[in-house]
Each structure stands twice: as structure tokens, then as C-alpha cells.
Automatic annotation (TrEMBL):
It comes from Thermosediminibacter litoriperuensis. The keyword Cytoplasm applies. This is Oxygen sensor histidine kinase NreB. It is found in: Cytoplasm. Keywords: 4Fe-4S, Coiled coil, Cytoplasm, Iron, Iron-sulfur, Kinase, Metal-binding, Transferase, Two-component regulatory system.
């Protein structure tokens, strides 16, 4: 059998690893986002610096042109300008030229920085997008793992339950066969052997004392009649014919009548709601559970009264079987009789198989109550007894 808890452990471990990876991805994404903001801020500032610098360079170029023109002017006219003045003009033009060169160099550097920052920004954008995609994928994996784990364990659980149910159904069937064999062995088989013996006796009697044969034959007829009754009872217990032909309530009525005659316990059968046709399996299961409860009452309860209540509500059939007998400790009996008694266990399993609810209440000295209910599809249009058509 598949070990559900092992499988669960493995999937849970995988989930933990994937969850950790998702956290890691969140962190990476967050770092990339912060880095992106910082880079964008830096890029803005570099761009501002560049435009300031462009303005400065433009201005400086104007000033440099002016200084050069002035130098040309003073250089052309030696006589009107002193050496001092010419030198000053030359130095001023040279200084402007140097300043211009340095600013242009700075502008070039800033442009390089800007390009670098723009590339970084693009890479960061890709990283952020990728991490978001990965987080979405990982979340999906987690979801699938969670969902599959749930459905997987439900499926495996159901499978195991079905296997266990199948096994106990086979056991219950074997028990039922044993019971029927015992009943035939103790009842009709013995009666038949008896009948053969008494028939032989009749034959002998015809030779010895023909007048006694008539009396003996009457006795023999009584025996055959009671054997026939036994056989009918066994057949009814195996499968009440009326269950198929007439429905659950008439079958129960017949059973209760027989039960009263058999064991002298007063049984009250109450039917609430209008009887509607049930699925064949449901009717048999309900009948069997009531039958088992009533058999237990006969065997153990020592009750003087029993009540069977069957209620046909909209979507369920609710049943209560109660007796005023000695009662018993349910927990103790079930744990002691585990694997031995199929009565109560079988009742519960039959009802579980029909997705119904089953409850048994009992305490020594306080009688016993078995209550169960089975969900049904109320198909009132079908008339009872028409299911065979
Ligand atoms: N109505 C009842 N009153 C008193 N005791 C009960 C009643 N029903 C069940 N019990 C007790 O519970 C025990 C278990 O019942 P259960 O029907 O499961 O098994 P069983 O009748 O002993 O065996 P099986 O039904 O397989 O022939 C019984 O042996 C009996 O001691
Ligand atoms: Mg029993």
C-alpha cells in the first residue's frame, strides 16, 4: 500500500524548499528595485550635470572666441599696445582655452558615465522583470503542490478506505454464509433427516400396526410444515422478496410481525413521511441494518419492548431502533470484539458505504439506541415496486 504520510512528508519538504527559494527571489527582486531607483536618481543627476556643462561650454566657447579675437587685434597692432597688454591677452586666451578643454573632457566623462548608468538601468529592469516572472512561476508550483497534495492524500485515503471496506465486506459475506449454513444445518437439514427416519418408521408401522400410521402421518405433516416455515424464514432473511416488490416499509411490517410471533417482544414500527422508492442497494442496506439491530435485541437485550422509527424526509431516510433492555458498554464491547463481531461493525460499514451517518448509544441498564441516516434522491414519481420493470 502507498504510504500517505511518507508522500506527504516528501511533498511538504519540497514545498519548504520552494517557499525558501521564493523568499530568496523576493529579496533579490527587492535589492534590484532599490538599485534601480538609486541608479535612476544618479542618472538624472548626471544628465543635469551634462546639460549644465553644455551651457558652460557654450558660454566658454563664446568667451574663448572673444579672447582670441582680442589677442589677434593686439598682436596685429604692436605699436598701439604694450608688451604687457599683448602678454595679458595671450594668457587670457590660453587660460580660456585650457578651461574649455578641461570642461569638454569633463563633459566627455559625464557622457560615458551616463551611458554606463543607462545600460545598468536596462539590466536592472530585466532582472526585476525576470524575478517577477520567476516568483509567479514558483507561486504556481506551490499552488499546484498544495492542491495536488490535498487531492492526492484524499485519493489515497479513499483508496485505502475502499480496500478496507472491500475486505470487511468479504468478511461479512463469509460470516453471513456461515450463519446461513448453520441455520440450514440446525433447522431444515435436521428436520429432513428426521422426516426420512419417521417415513421409514411409517413404512414399518404399516406392517405391524396399520391403525397407527394415520396418526404418525399427521405428525410427519406437522414436521414438514414447520420445516417449510423454517426454510421460508431463511429465504426471507437472505433477501426479503417484498423488499423488491413492495418496498422497504411493507418488508419491515412483515418482518416485525414475524419477529413478534417468534420472540414475544412488543415491537412498534412507526413510519414518518410518505414512503418513496429507494435505490435497491439502499433499501437492502437499511433493511439489513434494522434486521441486525433487531437480532441483537433478541439475542442480548432481554427487552420487553422495541421501537423502529423510519422517517422519509426530503433528502434522507432517518432510522432509529431502540430497546428497553439491559444495554451495554459500546466502547468496551467494540474494542473487545474487534475482528470477532461483525454485527455493529458491519452496520456502520454498510451505512458508510452509502455515505450515511451511523450512531449507537447504549449504557448498561439504559437500553440501546441505534440511529442512522442515509442520503437519498427522492424520486417520488417512481412508484414503489416499479423498479423491476
Ligand atoms: N441491543 C443490545 N442490547 C444489549 N447488548 C447488545 C445489544 N446489541 C449489541 N449488544 C452487545 O454488543 C455485542 C456486539 O454486537 P455485534 O452485533 O457487533 O456482535 P454479535 O452479535 O456478538 O456477533 P454477530 O452480530 O457477528 O453475530 C454483543 O455481543 C452484545 O454483547
Ligand atoms: Mg449481532
Amino acid at each position: 500500500m502507498v504510504n500517505v504520510s511518507n508522500l506527504e512528508r516528501i511533498i511538504n519538504k519540497t514545498k519548504k524548499i520552494v517557499e525558501k527559494s521564493r523568499e530568496e527571489l523576493y529579496r533579490l527582486g527587492e535589492t534590484a528595485r532599490q538599485e534601480y531607483e538609486r541608479t535612476r536618481y544618479e542618472l538624472d543627476s548626471v544628465k543635469n550635470q551634462i546639460s549644465d556643462l553644455i551651457r558652460e561650454v557654450d558660454e566658454l566657447e563664446g568667451e574663448y572666441t572673444k579672447a582670441r579675437l582680442y589677442l589677434m587685434e593686439v598682436s596685429r597692432d604692436f605699436n598701439r599696445h604694450s608688451e604687457e597688454q599683448i602678454k595679458g591677452a595671450y594668457e587670457a586666451a590660453h587660460a580660456k582655452q585650457l578651461e574649455l578643454l578641461s570642461k569638454r573632457e569633463k563633459e566627455k566623462l559625464l557622457r560615458l558615465t551616463r551611458d554606463h548608468l543607462e545600460r545598468n538601468l536596462k539590466n536592472l529592469e530585466t532582472t526585476i522583470r525576470r524575478s517577477e516572472e520567476l516568483i509567479a512561476n514558483v507561486s504556481m508550483v506551490l499552488k499546484i503542490l498544495g492542491r495536488d497534495l490535498e487531492s492526492l492524500s484524499v485519493e489515497i485515503g479513499e483508496m485505502q478506505q475502499r480496500q478496507a471496506l472491500g475486505f470487511s465486506i468479504i468478511m461479512a459475506q463469509e460470516e453471513e454464509r456461515k450463519r446461513v449454513a448453520r441455520e440450514i444445518h440446525d433447522g431444515p437439514a435436521q428436520s429432513l433427516a428426521n422426516i426420512v427416519m419417521r417415513a421409514e418408521y411409517c413404512l414399518k408401522l404399516m406392517d405391524i400396526s396399520p391403525s397407527k400410521v394415520k396418526e404418525e402421518l399427521f405428525g410427519l405433516m406437522d414436521l414438514v410444515r414447520s420445516s417449510l416455515q423454517d426454510v421460508r424464514k431463511i429465504i426471507f432473511d437472505l433477501r426479503p422478496m417484498s423488499l423488491d416488490d413492495l418496498g422497504l416499509v411493507p418488508a419491515l411490517k412483515k418482518y416485525v410481525e414475524q419477529y413478534r410471533n417468534d420472540c414475544g417482544i412488543y415491537v412498534e414500527l412507526t413510519v414518518l413521511g410518505r414512503e418513496y422508492p429507494l435505490d435497491g442497494c439502499q433499501a437492502v442496506a437499511i433493511f439489513r441494518v434494522i434486521h441486525e439491530a433487531m437480532t441483537n435485541i433478541k439475542k442480548y437485550a432481554g427487552a420487553s419492548q422495541a421501537v423502529i422509527k423510519v422517517e422519509f424526509s426530503k433528502n434522507r431516510v432517518n432510522v432509529v431502533v431502540r430497546d428497553n433492555g439491559i444495554g451495554f458498554d459500546v466502547e468496551r464491547v467494540l474494542s473487545e470484539k474487534r475482528g470477532v463481531a461483525f454485527g455493529i461493525v458491519g452496520m456502520r460499514e454498510r451505512i458508510q458505504l452509502l455515505k450515511g451517518k451511523f450512531e449507537i448509544k447504549s449504557a448498561p441498564g439504559h437500553g440501546t439506541e441505534i440511529a442512522f441516516s442515509v442520503p437519498v434522491v427522492n424520486n417520488e414519481k417512481l412508484s414503489i415496486g416499479s423498479r423491476r420493470d
